[in-house]
Design a protein that fits this description.
By secondary structure, this protein is α+β, with helices and mostly antiparallel strands. It is built from seven helices and seven strands, in the order αααααβαββββββα. A seven-stranded antiparallel β-sheet has the order 1-2-3-4-7-6-5, with helices on both faces. Helix 1 packs parallel to helix 3 and helix 3 packs antiparallel against helix 5.
């Protein structure tokens, strides 16, 4: 059972409605209290399930074909060819706009689903007594551990001179695709870095700076055939610094 002093704030935390001071305090508490961390994970999963159910309906090929078929029916001219010449471009604009809107809505829902999965994995790692399978601060130990376990290879940054520390890593899965889950630490905050093969059809979103997803900052980009995600409850400045270190790793 979650601590009484925090139970009423868990929903607001998941919804990103707490003040920055309360977010920092509760985030620290979650790293120390397994019961609250587990209940927070349940609420994150419940929220994601509701969001997925709300977006379950997706426009299919039949709907698009119906729109195109409707648009292709030529209306009877009311005053010769002039009406048709004026109406045809308007119909085309409506159809194109509808298809673009449907495509954007579908991609946005897919991106939200993926980010929801990743935040779940991050929260689960925070709540776990063994968040990594290879425990080491040495990149030359962690990187070789993944060899033979994943169909990809990547470089990890040299952290000397930075505020970040490598905690370790484990194999994880996103939509049945295996990838690496690395954990870094900065000022007692833990940040998850996920690396997967770049699936351009997965609508994971274009490369972007930190965005807020369920009280976490998330950044993503593609590089050398890989898709990177950085997830943490730290500020966007820290997310940007770690992302740059990863992008420049050799």
């Amino acid at each position: 059972m979650a601590c009484d002093s925090w139970r009423d704030k868990l929903d607001a935390y998941v919804d990103g409605e707490l003040t920055p001071a309360d977010v920092r305090a509760l985030s620290q508490h979650l790293r120390e209290c397994a019961a609250c961390a587990a209940e927070t994970l349940e609420r994150v999963q419940l929220k994601r399930s509701v969001a997925v159910a709300g977006n379950r309906y997706q426009p299919n090929a039949q709907l698009r074909a119906k729109i195109l078929k409707t648009a292709s029916v030529k209306p009877r001219p009311r005053s010769g060819w002039a009406w048709a010449v004026v109406a045809a471009p308007a119909v085309l604009v409506i159809v194109v706009s509808a298809l673009v809107y449907l495509s954007v809505a579908r991609d946005k829902a897919s991106s939200q689903h993926i980010f929801g999965e990743l935040t779940d994995l991050h929260v689960a790692a925070l709540a776990s007594a063994t968040p990594v399978d290879v425990l080491s601060t040495d990149r030359h130990t962690v990187k070789p551990w993944f060899e033979g376990k994943l169909p990809l290879t990547f470089n990890l940054p040299e952290l000397q001179g930075s505020e970040f520390t490598l905690v370790g890593g484990r194999v994880t899965y996103l939509e049945q695709t295996p990838g690496a889950h690395l954990i870094y630490q900065i000022r007692k905050h833990r940040i998850s870095v996920f690396i997967f093969p770049d699936r351009r059809e997965s609508a994971a979103g274009a490369s972007s700076g930190p965005a807020n997803v369920m009280a976490f900052n998330v950044a993503t980009w593609t590089q050398n055939g890989l898709r990177y995600f950085v997830v943490g409850d730290v500020g966007s400045a820290d997310i940007n610094v770690l992302s740059k270190l990863l992008q420049e790793a050799k």
